[in-house]
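Need a sequence for this fold. Nothing fancy.
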């Protein structure tokens, strides 16, 4: 009997399953069930084949059912009874299925993927605050108003002399002044003057308000689109 260290080799150490091809396989109940004939990377399984009294038996066992090594033997984590659930009825059909999987994988490996890049326009909006300056300033202008004013004028009216009547009527006490005397007479004349008084008043009111308005603007820019083209190169001569 081998030591527990040999029996409990972790599955991570046998992930390179090429080393197990040809190894004898035992189930968890220590029943010999055949040998490993191949490993399947695409199918994530191993193929076990055994020869019995009534013919050969083939099993497809997932790799996560591989427990480790027990000396030279490969141990499974399933019993011999559970192994029957992994039996392959027709190994030839299964092999053809695996070959088709490998062919598809090779075809994918031979494909060359060329990304074609295109630029898209992404339009975003941001709020910008503008200022409108309203200025109220005094403006000087000349206005002309017609005003009626009154003034008195001196009117001189000549009448016939009364000296003849005075000669005829000697009772008149007043006598004309001597000829060499200067007489000054003051006569008041009334007139109206214009006085200007300026008084401010509210002529009108301006109401300032804000309201949103929506408009549609067209944004135009250049974008780069890659174009795929094939240039045939003549390699002859």
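Here you go.
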């Amino acid at each position: 009997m081998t030591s527990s260290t040999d029996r409990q080799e972790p599955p991570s150490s046998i992930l390179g399953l090429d080393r197990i091809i040809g190894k004898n396989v035992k189930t968890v109940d220590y029943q010999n069930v055949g040998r490993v004939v191949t490993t399947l990377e695409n199918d994530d399984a191993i193929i076990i084949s055994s020869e019995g009294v009534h013919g050969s038996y083939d099993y497809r066992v997932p790799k996560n059912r591989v427990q480790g090594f027990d000396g030279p033997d490969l141990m499974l984590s399933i019993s011999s009874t559970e192994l029957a659930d992994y039996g392959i009825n027709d190994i030839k059909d299964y092999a053809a299925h695996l070959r088709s999987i490998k062919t598809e994988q090779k075809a994918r490996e031979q494909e060359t993927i060329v990304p074609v890049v295109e630029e898209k326009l992404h339009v975003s909006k941001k709020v910008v605050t503008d200022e409108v300056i309203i200025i109220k300033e005094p403006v000087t202008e000349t206005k002309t108003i017609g005003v009626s004013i009154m003034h008195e004028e001196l009117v001189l009216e000549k009448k016939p002399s009364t000296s003849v009547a005075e000669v005829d009527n000697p009772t008149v006490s007043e006598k004309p002044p001597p000829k060499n005397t200067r007489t000054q007479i003051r006569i008041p004349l009334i007139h109206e003057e214009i006085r200007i008084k300026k008084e401010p008043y509210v002529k009108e009111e301006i109401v300032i308000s804000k309201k949103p308005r929506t408009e549609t603007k067209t944004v135009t820019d250049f974008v780069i689109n890659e174009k795929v083209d094939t240039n045939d190169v003549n390699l002859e001569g």
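For context: Confidence is low (pLDDT under 50) at residues 1-10.
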